[in-house]
Amino acid sequence: MPITFDFQQFLEDGARGRRTLSEAIRGMTASACGSIDAEALTESVLLEPRLIGWHFGPASRAVPIEQLLFRILPHDINREIEVGSGESGAITLPGIGSVETALPNARLRLSRRSGENAFDVRGPGGPVQCTFSERRNVPGTAIELIEEMDAVVKGFLSQNIGGHEQITIVRARRELMANLSRALILVEKHLPRIAELLRRSVQAILLFEHPTLNSFAALQMHGMIFLNVRRGATVLFFVDGLVHQGGHVVFSEATLERQMYFKVSPDESLQTITGRRDGRTAYEALHGLYTECALLEAFSGLGRADLDVSERQELAARTGFVLRRFRTDMRLMQEHAKAVLSHHGEPLFEYFAEKLRHFDTLAAPDTSDYSGHADDFDFSAFLKQNPGWQASRRSLIEEES
Length: 401
Fold this sequence. Notes:
Blueprint: H1 7-12, H2 14-32, H3 43-46, H4 49-56, H5 65-68, E1 80-84, E2 90-93, E3 97-100, E4 107-112, E5 119-123, E6 126-128, E7 131-134, E8 144-146, H6 151-160, E9 168-169, H7 174-190, H8 192-201, E10 204-209, E11 216-217, E12 224-228, H9 235-254, H10 270-274, H11 282-301, H12 309-334, H13 337-340, H14 345-362, H15 379-385, H16 389-400
Parallel strand pairs: 8-10, 10-12
Antiparallel strand pairs: 1-4, 2-3, 3-7, 4-5, 5-6, 9-10, 11-12
Helix pairs in contact: 2-9, 4-6, 7-8, 7-9, 8-9, 9-11, 11-12, 11-14, 12-14, 12-16
């Protein structure tokens, strides 16, 4: 039976969710900062991830909201505002860049001098030496690359992420930037619909290292994705991360009114629903089906890309891993879908079920060992688990070529 649900339109309608979220942030910002005209704030300002994080986290104790809105404040020469520096001493100004000082975690006074990006900083003892660094974007995009553990990011991590003390933010080395940039080029060229959604919804990327955490995204810092590069950051790792974690951002906007998709609470434990051990909620499980579906769409689209043999091997392994997870999650939800999902949620589930049937018809038999992998698939570990796989896959790719 052909797929009749217009899923692309469903995602594009996520623009309504963006408007709803931005209006909520507008009201909260107006209450928190009476010195601004909240009605004049644009969507890009309102959906700045650190502004959202400020409202939903403990950062207000360390960073005044005027600092996060600095780019839209009236800037009379020598007019000072109170600011807070981060762990490295940098004063983060979203949309502009950072003013770097040698005073970490300090309350300071900031003013703009004559010139667009010229600043003065003053502490309790007088003037503070500072330098300015412009906001860094991923080359060729408007996506900001976060390289500073500022107070908002730190507050979000400490409140929401277990083991956050072991997170180290990674400054983008040349190899990382080259792989991330190429991943974005591949997405733009071969996955135009996904690229359009990512351009709309993803505002920032933070690269980090942690021994066990998966990459993630969260509504409390909506628009920012966090990618753990510890296990190796190949081009396909970044494609996976952009589609997967960026997909969470996209899907969150499309399903902002979460309850309308469920008969039960969206926060109901999946373990309670299914009787099987699972730490996710019903809403998180639906998110998972979307990201698995999106990844398989993306990997299928990259079959036409100009990849070398090792990249094609990695693509095949990632496809097999996600397809196996998609099957498992669909089976888990299948028995309970009608009891859990509303008349809005059921068409989504049926769409995912039909897409799985489609991907299953394309899949070759696969007896690979995928055990022990977290959400962040580790291709190097996979090759060690499957010592004969690389040679046999190379042969197959060479025959196809």
